[in-house]
Every structure is written in structure tokens, then in C-alpha cells.
Amino acid sequence: MARYDLYNDDGTTSGELCPRCGDVFLADHGDRKHCGKCGYTEWE
Any idea which positions bind Zn(2+) (predicted)? Predict the structure, then answer.
């Protein structure tokens, strides 16, 4: 996924932001979502 695919035409995003950092997208790894900045992980 390219960076420009994360933002809609109106500037909003469909990606989920890290609840700790607030300014970083969570990477979707299938079985978990992970923040590369602080290490926050949500297991699915």
C-alpha cells in the first residue's frame, strides 16, 4: 500500500491510529495491529 492510498479525497483516513501515539497508523498484520513507533499491539 502506498502512502497516498491511506487518505481519502477529503483528507480523512480509513487507517486506524495508535491510541498511545495518536499520530501513527497501526500496521495490519492479519492476526494483529501493531504500532512501529511505541510497540503497541492489538491481537485479533
Answer: 18, 21, 35, 38
Three-state secondary structure string covering the chain = CCHHHHECCCCCECCCECCCCCCCECEECCCEEECCCCCCEEEC
Residue 9 annotated in ligand binding:
no
pTM for this predicted structure: 0.68
Evaluate the CA torsion angle 37, 9, 32, 41 in order and state its sign: positive
What average pLDDT score do residues 10-34 get?
Answer: 87
Exposed, middle or buried, 18 (CB in 10 Å: 0-12/13-18/19+)?
buried
Residue 28, strand partner residues: 33
